[in-house]
Design a protein that fits this description.
By secondary structure, the protein is α/β, with parallel strands linked by helices. It has two domains: about 1-215, Rossmann fold (3-Layer(aba) Sandwich), CATH 3.40.50; about 220-450, Rossmann fold, CATH 3.40.50.300. The protein is built from 19 helices and 13 strands. The strands form two sheets. The protein has a seven-stranded parallel sheet with strand order 3-4-2-5-6-1-7. Strands 8-13-12-9-11-10 form a six-stranded parallel sheet, sandwiched between helices. Helix 8 (about 175-185) runs parallel beside helix 9 (about 195-205). The longest helix has 21 residues, at about 235-255.
Amino acid sequence: MGAAAEAFGLTWPAPLPPWQRQGVARLLAQPGVLLADEMGLGKTVQAIAALRLLLTAGAPGPVLVVVPASLVLQWRRHLREWAPDLVLATCAGPAAERRRRWCAPAQVFLVGYDALRADAALPAPYGPLRRRWQVVVADEAQRIRNAGTDLAATVKAVPRDRAWALTGTPLENHPDDAVSILDFVAPGVCPRGALLSGIRHALGTVQLRRRRAAVLPELPPKSAFTLAPDLSPRQRAAYDTAEREGLVWLRDLGARVRIVHVLELILRLKQICNACPETGESAKCEDLRRRIAAVAEAGEKVLVFTQFVAAPFGAEWLADALAPFRPLLLTGRMSPAARDRAVAVFAADPERRVLVASLRAGGVGLNLTAASVVFHFDRWWNPAAEAQAEDRAHRIGQTRPVQVFAYLTPDSIEQRIAAILVEKRALFADLIDGVAAESLGRLDLPTLLRAVGT
């Protein structure tokens, strides 16, 4: 890749390490690539460098880059930094503004997933589905893991010569996640319902995955710890009542019970583990305050992740509860510009030591190496998403050991979910990292019923 860049007179803002040069070469050499490097190895930079080389070599563009809405501004910054010579059109904002941007004489078009879906019906010659793209890049490609959604169908319907999927978590819940992404990268290579051995073989033909431990031996260590404070007396009473009444309800449903019914009970129990719905008491929050005080006094910064957003159980409530520490907040309910400001302030202001983030908003595409301590306030079904979130801090640029603390309420739904997560980690490792697994768990009705103890 170095010779190719020199041949076109290209310079880069920073040297590309060997694994990134290898990734760029793979993207250029193969029409369909699943770049599944672990978080923090620079998948964005590899894709941009490959696009720049491809277009500089005279490839008949344009190219389309599809990303979560929360990452549009970040991708725009990276494109301007790593490919300043490419003409970029950012298809964001109101529908009329996006329509004008689709008509721009650009080489690279950048759009959010939901905006692409909304604009799919725009007419030729400028509608995203009405022209042929040299490359379509799907960042955080786990967004198209559910083949039955309109979003996945829209992305896969975009005419293209090359398809590059970027994600550190190509499998989140079950093997069909990977099959759906493969259907974008290399249609037909792996049919839906394929055996695990077939999925593994298909991944082997298009996937490039590097582990950080292998290519970044200098990365400081990451240590994981479990915190298990007992529920306060009122929390325990509320929890026991909700669990007892919920189980009676599920049993009364009998053969009519569906996944949505079990998830409703699980959600309720998980929320009570965060805080008592009647009094607001929270054993976790009391423990978290004490630990953050110690961390802040030592001069370190803290990330706090939760799957919930709104009060009285989620990130907005936590930010209020931690008010003495002047925490910054990062959720999907904030505008992209507001999220961008929160990340920038957290990185630059030594007095702002705490960032409270919802798992979905703060768990992808961000560099949060200012923090060296991470708390998972509650547990999500997806261990890969949890790992990706905590590795916002444990990545290139981190110079201090990273400590990760996960709350796990004793004798509760959280404890049973933890056992299921062990199985799901085994599934991910078996298919994506290619190591043997003794048990393969998936998120189905029997698994959910086991979680609630029925």
